[in-house]
Write a structure and sequence with these properties.
Elements (H helix, E strand, L loop, with lengths): L1 E7 L4 H11 L1 H4 L3 E7 L4 H7 L5 E4 L4 E4 L4 H13 L1
Parallel strand pairs: 1-2
Antiparallel strand pairs: 1-3, 3-4
Length: 84
Amino acid sequence: MIKLKLFGTQGCHLCEQAEEMLDSYPADNNDIEIESIDIAEQAQWQERYAIRIPVLLHEASGSELCWPFDRLDVEKLVAILCRK
């Protein structure tokens, strides 16, 4: 299973757009798990992602997708991760 983290925060309209786009993705592919993380929860996340959110991260490889990304970009990332 590929685990991805979506970094964002409350009140961020771009983060809401990313969440809406990603909501249907795991339903189409049971090998993907997406966890939403609010950067306000930890100072290190605020420092790293404050002006870049939303960011989709594959922690094991360090691969990141920064906004703007779309479903095709996510599919490309997943394809690359599946080959590793």
